[in-house]
Amino acid sequence: KTSTNEANGLTRDLQGRLLSAEHATRRVTREDPDGSMTVVANNFQGKRLLRPNDVIVKSDGTIYFTDPGGPLAPDQYDVTVSGVYRVSPDLGSMSLIVDDVIAPNGLAFSPDESILYVTEPRRRHVRAYDLLPNGTVAKQTSRLFADMGGAEPGVPDGLKVDTAGNVYTGGSGGLYIMDKTGKKLGRIVHGLPATTNVAFGGDDWKTLYFTTRSSLNMVTLKIGGVPVPARKRTSS
Q1: Does the model's pTM come out above 0.90?
Q2: Which DSSP category does 62 fall into?
Q3: How far apart are CA 113 and CA 134, in angstroms?
Q4: Does the structure show a pLDDT above 70 at 74?
Q5: What are the angstrom distances between the C-alpha of 20 and each of 9, 138, 165?
Q6: Are 126 and 169 in contact (CB under 8 A)?
Q7: Residue 126 CA, distance from chain mean position
Q8: What is the reported pLDDT for 70?
Q9: 3-class DSSP assignment, residue 16
Q10: How far is it, in rounded angstroms, from Cα 97 to Cα 216?
Q11: Which backbone phi and psi does 189 adopt, to 5 degrees?
Q12: Which residues contact 163 (CB under 8 A, 6 or more apart)?
């Protein structure tokens, strides 16, 4: 049995290599087809990451991930601040690009990569930022995209975007679908207290998979998600 190191967010880069945000090791890693591992990030400006949560890759190969932070143990005093981090495609540079979100969690781009969405579970918010050509965000554009609060349990955790720009994430009472303006188009009511992660898959990317604290579920949609590169296997 191979340890997952409590990996949370997962994606693939342009070469189909698996990227993992690992809680247990406090790092983001990349697994090559031959099984070798590369550390994408485990510290920033000499301070250790605390609990990387989600990871996505831009079409130019740039890697973005969240570190929501959390309660500190006595040996965790020298850690990075919570926020959204950007790592260059060659892994040579890393920067903190969003620091105005409390415990950021899920990440996603709009289909044209002009907007970066970030979930903020503690406030039950989804925030949006305009993405600049250099891959950073225009901080003055920080805005509330959607309030996912309500009387029923559920917070925005993981999120995904389809090819039409609709946003999928958890909230009060289920899994919501919103258009690119933040208007709620519908809700999948699954009867469980939390929607923890979402992902598109299937041959046509029109199957939406979502997890709760205790289950994996799927639903077929009419609009497909933005595809993730497939794994490239080494020849035998």
Answers
A1: yes
A2: -
A3: 12
A4: no
A5: 6, 27, 25
A6: yes
A7: 12
A8: 72
A9: coil
A10: 32
A11: -95, 110
A12: 111, 223, 224, 225, 226
Extract long-range pairs of 166-174: CB within 8 Å, 24+ residues apart. Answer: 166/223, 167/108, 167/117, 167/126, 168/198, 168/208, 168/210, 169/106, 169/119, 169/126, 169/195, 169/198, 170/194, 170/195, 170/196, 170/198, 170/210, 171/124, 171/146, 171/195, 172/124, 172/148
Structure tokens at 46: 């000499």
Using CA atoms, how far residue 146 sits from 107, 143, 184, in Å, is: 14, 9, 8
Both tokens assigned to 229: 């590169």
d(CA 87, CA 92): 8
> Sheet harboring 125-131: ordered strands across?
107-109, 115-120, 125-131, 137-147
Query: What six digits make up the tokens of 124?
Result: 């039950």
Convert the pLDDT of each residue in 2-61 to its tens digit.
Answer: 578 999 999 999 999 999 999 999 999 999 888 899 999 999 998 999 999 999 999 999
